[in-house]
Design a protein that fits this description.
Elements lengths: L2 H66 L2 H10 L6 H15 L2 E12 L7 E11 L1 H13 L4 E8 L8 E11 L1
Antiparallel strand pairs: 1-2, 2-4, 3-4
Helix pairs in contact: 3-4
Length: about 180
C-alpha cells in the first residue's frame, strides 16, 4: 500500500469517527443535556416557591406577634359579640342588671333567634320583659345596659301609670347579638 492510500484511509477513518462522535453526541447526549437543563429550571422554580413560602411564613409569624399586642381588644370583641347564642347566659346578665338597679323582673320571654339582616353571620335574639320599680331605678338599669360590653339594642319601652306610689311597670323589647 502506498503512503497515499494510508493517508486517505486514515483521513476517511478520522472523518467517520468525527461524524460518528457528532451523531452519538446528538442522539445520546443532547436529550440528557436537555433533561438536565429542564431539571435545573424546575429546581430554580421550586427554590423560588420555597423562598416565597418562607417569606410568607415569616410574615405570618410577625403578624401573630403583632396580634398578641391586641389580645385585650379581641377579648372585648368576643365579649361584645359572644360566639355562643346562649339565651340563659344573657338572661342571667339581664336579671343581675335589673336587681343591681333596684328593679324586679316580673316577666321575660325570648322571642327567638334569627340571622341579622345587616350581617348574615351575626344572630339577633329578641327579648320581651316586664320590670317593676321606680323610674330612677329604670334609668339606672338602662345605663347598665348601655355600659355593657355586649351589643344590646333597646327597641321599645312602654310603661303604665304607677300602681303604688312610684312603682311603675316597664315593658321593654330588647335585641342582643351573637355570632
Amino acid at each position: 500500500m502506498d503512503k497515499m492510500n494510508i493517508k486517505t484511509i486514515s483521513l476517511v477513518f478520522s472523518a467517520c469517527m468525527i461524524i460518528f462522535s457528532l451523531v452519538f453526541a446528538f442522539l445520546v447526549c443532547w436529550p440528557k443535556y436537555s433533561e438536565l437543563k429542564s431539571l435545573q429550571t424546575d429546581i430554580r422554580v421550586k427554590q423560588d416557591e420555597l423562598n416565597w413560602q418562607r417569606e410568607y411564613l415569616k410574615n405570618l409569624i410577625q403578624i401573630k406577634a403583632e396580634f398578641k399586642n391586641y389580645e385585650t381588644e379581641f377579648a372585648k370583641i368576643d365579649t361584645a359579640l359572644p360566639s355562643d347564642n346562649s339565651v340563659p347566659s344573657f338572661l342571667n346578665f339581664f336579671q343581675a342588671a335589673a336587681s343591681q338597679s333596684g328593679l324586679i323582673l316580673t316577666r321575660v320571654s325570648p322571642s327567638g333567634i334569627a340571622p341579622s339582616l345587616a350581617v348574615p353571620t351575626v344572630n339577633e335574639t329578641q327579648l320581651d320583659a316586664a320590670l317593676d320599680g321606680p323610674y330612677p331605678a329604670f334609668k339606672n338599669f338602662l345605663s347598665i345596659l348601655e355600659k355593657s360590653s355586649r351589643f344590646i339594642d333597646v327597641e321599645n319601652i312602654s310603661f303604665s301609670s304607677p300602681k303604688q306610689k312610684e312603682i311603675f311597670t316597664f315593658n321593654v323589647k330588647i335585641k342582643f347579638y351573637s355570632y
